[in-house]
Design brief:
By secondary structure, the protein is mainly alpha-helical. The chain has a domain of 412 residues: MetI-like fold (Orthogonal Bundle). 73% of the residues lie in helices and 1% in strands. The protein is built from 31 helices and 2 strands. The protein has a two-stranded antiparallel ribbon with strand order 1-2. Helix 1 crosses helix 21 and helix 5 crosses helix 17. The longest helix is centred in the middle third of the chain and has 33 residues. The two termini are 46 Å apart.
């Protein structure tokens, strides 16, 4: 008999990666987009509507309400994304020497969910919020109150802009630091300092143009998120009208079929707006990179952001000092507002009586924690809890928001980690030269680029049509669509820079490939993996719109409760849910990090 050919690991990983891509991404995403397109043109067989027309598009484009909403969305989205990018480069320029410690701090910031952070900031910016209490205590009551334009739900969207900037800066900073190789910055700075440039001038003229090309995808993801964010806009965004994404969700939640069809058309328009925005930034980048254009008449205009200033012989610029001090200001605001937001959330969660304008409550209680953790069952003590621990009680525990959040987060994060490792190993075998692998890698970020409304409107329709809605597995898969891209974005750079010689040495010592991977490669990458798991889990915890639509109100998580309660006046319950939402990913990060820390030290080469 002829010897049987052994199937190579390269072929197995290729087939497995392609299968996962088709099953988990291509078919569901294509179906959901098609399902969103058809109702926007009036074709809906489920409602016996077969007349194709563009009247819903016409109603959407001619409605003045949508005109104002689109303008607010563009202004807030563009300004917040650009400001976050500048702030991230500023922090990286200030603390690049302390990358190891900075990454720990950034991981903690990334573990704070968007909605929890927004709730904390809403407590600060409310008309009777903590900032106004501080002004009252300082005797500055004449500038506090409702006349302050920088308050909750302001029509300019300044509060939403601030929270978007402060929340996206840690993410972009982490991506910037992860995209730079060891000693790369020092080599650039040594060269530029020898030519008479300061560190910030070097960053502005040399490092930023090079590094931006590496983090372009991350910036586009931040831009798309800023244009389509829903939960943070509900908590502290402008109203009358709100941002476009919130307005579309309101139309989609209506019982009137015509308004739902308009929402489908608006979701597609939002996707078109994001696509045009990304293309515009890409074109601007290419235009600014043309040296021969910048070296002509308009070189002086663009010299502060390109290398054209080098040709003019200038070594310093007033923008260098501005860049430096603005970076310190952003660091201060980020640390101050984040710390104060967490503090106010914690105080409100235990406050029983807090009179205005006192800075601290006069009495405290834990009853709101009991109500939030297990709403329908509040035993007076541990003995009564054990007495009533039966089937009905366990059902209440399993349906509690905290348990549902943990279950969905663990399932989606574990699936994202397994698929990420499979794909990254396939990338390693192909040495990043295969167009097929590169195409798969790019397609994984589609859920982050297109608006949530396009994807989730279609998935919700398919889930209801196939009777898969309000199912924890379906919801976990929906969360997977958002956790997996962040997992890949976090792991790709460090995984790519891993020195394969360690694995080669391990295999020469008679170790199998699987043992080499588990005992050598994973321990060396455990810090990055821990951060990626924390980020992915945090992304799952913070999912609002997907849980609200796919869950159909029957699967309740901490985030859906927190966002839905943001329109109420019970700040104590809101504070409890915000603290729980912060504590879950932070606890997960600490557990993952410290559980593998001994393994990291024992395997360190």
């Amino acid at each position: 008999m002829p010897p049987q050919k052994k199937i190579s690991s390269k072929r197995i990983l290729t087939l497995l990666g392609f299968f996962l891509w088709v099953v988990l991404f291509f078919l569901p995403l294509a179906a959901s987009i098609i399902v969103t397109i058809l109702p926007s043109i009036g074709y809906e067989p489920a409602l016996a509507q077969y007349d194709v027309s563009f009247r819903y598009w016409q109603q959407f484009l001619l409605d003045p309400l949508f005109h104002k909403s689109i303008l607010k969305t563009i202004i807030i989205g563009y300004t917040s994304a650009i400001t976050a990018l500048i702030g991230a480069f500023g922090i990286a320029a200030l603390f690049y020497k302390y990358t190891r410690h900075l990454i720990k701090w950034l991981a903690g910031m990334l573990a704070i969910p968007h909605a929890a952070f927004a709730l904390g900031v809403s407590f600060l910016l409310a008309p009777a919020g903590y900032f106004v209490r501080i002004l009252e205590s300082l005797g500055l009551s004449n500038i506090s109150g409702n006349h302050n334009p920088f308050l909750l739900f302001d029509h300019l969207g300044l509060s939403l802009f601030t929270v978007l900037v402060l929340k996206e800066i840690p993410f972009l900073t982490y991506i910037i630091l992860g995209s730079m190789k060891n000693h790369e910055i020092e080599n650039w700075l040594i060269t530029t300092r020898s030519l008479g440039y300061t560190n910030f001038a070097a960053w502005r003229k040399v490092i930023i143009p090079v590094v931006y090309k590496r983090i372009r995808l991350a910036f586009f993801i931040v831009l798309a998120y800023s244009l389509s964010v829903v939960d943070m806009s509900i908590i502290l965004g402008p109203q009358q009208p709100p941002t476009l994404s919130v307005l579309l969700v309101q139309f989609y939640s209506s019982d009137i079929t015509e308004m739902r069809f308009i929402a489908y058309a608006g979701a597609l328009f939002l996707g078109f707006l994001i696509g045009v925005s990304i293309l515009s930034f890409w074109v601007i980048e290419k235009l600014l990179s043309l040296r021969y254009v910048l070296s002509l008449r308009y070189a002086k205009v663009f010299s502060f952001i390109t290398s054209a200033g080098i040709m003019q012989g200038r070594r310093t610029h007033w923008l260098d000092s501005l860049f430096k001090w603005n970076s310190w200001l952003i660091v201060f605001l980020l640390a101050f507002i984040t710390t104060l937001a967490i503090f106010v959330n914690a105080v409100w969660s235990f406050a029983e009586r807090w009179r205005y304008p006192a800075l601290l409550p006069s009495s405290y209680t834990t009853k709101y924690w009991n109500r939030a953790l297990l709403p329908d069952f509040e035993p007076s003590n541990l003995l009564s809890f054990t007495q009533y621990l039966n089937k009905d009680t366990l059902e209440l525990i399993f349906n509690a928001p905290l348990f549902q959040t943990l279950c969905i987060g663990c399932l989606s994060t574990l699936a994202a980690f397994i698929v990420s490792i499979v794909f990254l190993e396939a990338v390693r075998l192909f040495k990043n030269n295969n167009l097929f692998i590169k195409g798969l890698y790019s397609s994984f970020f589609i859920p982050l680029i297109i608006p949530e409304t396009i994807l989730l409107f279609g998935i919700t329709f398919l889930a209801i049509y196939m009777s898969f809605n309000a199912n924890i597995l379906t919801l976990s898969w929906t969360h997977f669509l958002y956790t997996f891209p962040y997992m890949m974005l976090t792991l790709y750079g460090p995984y790519k820079s891993y020195d394969e010689r360690y694995s080669i040495i391990g295999r020469t010592l008679a170790k199998q490939k699987l043992k080499t991977f588990l005992k050598i490669k994973l321990p060396l990458l455990i810090r990055t993996i821990a951060i990626a798991l924390a980020i992915a889990f945090s992304v799952s915890v913070t999912q609002y719109l997907s849980t609200e639509l796919i869950g159909g109100g029957r699967i309740i998580t901490i985030t859906t409760e927190a966002v839905n309660l943001s329109v109420s006046l019970n700040r104590r319950i809101m504070g409890v849910y915000a603290i729980i939402q912060m504590a879950i990913p932070m606890t997960a990060f600490l557990i993952v990090f410290y559980a593998f820390k001994p393994l990291e030290h024992s395997q360190k080469p």
